[in-house]
Amino acid sequence: MTEPREELTWELFGTAARELAELVAKDGYEPDIILSIARGGLFVAGALGYALDVKNLHVANVEFYTGVDERLPVPIMLPPVPNVVDLSGANVLVADDVADTGATLKLVRDFCVGHVADVRCAVVYEKPHTTVQCEYVWRRTDRWINFPWSTQPPVVRRPDQVLDA
């Protein structure tokens, strides 16, 4: 028997993103920049950008997960790395789909510290074993999460992206 999973549909994602934005607004935090962690954080950042009326969105490309529950030893930031000059003195909201181990969020948050006025994290899901406690969380779960953007296999596989071809 397979373990139960958390199922996030596109419709439920719309609800989650709106409620997550409401948490940020209710707290009085006014981000100047939303820094998404690609790839799952792109969806969250876009939705938060619209809901919080923030047009200044940036992307941090981080590689950590290589498959289901398969990771690199540590997360690495891939080029193009955000320019800290663009973040200087700003209130930054780091957006991602899930705080699982917390390693990716920690990498990006630590990258911002010392360059920005304030940095906070917003995620759709937070796992109990994460090392980063996010300021804004829609739901907490210990289950594996099926996100609508990653449950189906790619339409095409790029040869340079296949690990065991």
TrEMBL record:
CDD domains associated with the record: PRTases_typeI
The keyword Glycosyltransferase appears for this protein: yes
Keywords noted in UniProt: Glycosyltransferase, Transferase
Name of the molecule in the record: Phosphoribosyltransferase
Molecular function as annotated in GO: glycosyltransferase activity
Pfam families in the cross-refs: Pribosyltran
Domain of life per record: Bacteria
Residue ranges occupied by any Phosphoribosyltransferase domain in the UniProt entry: 11-151
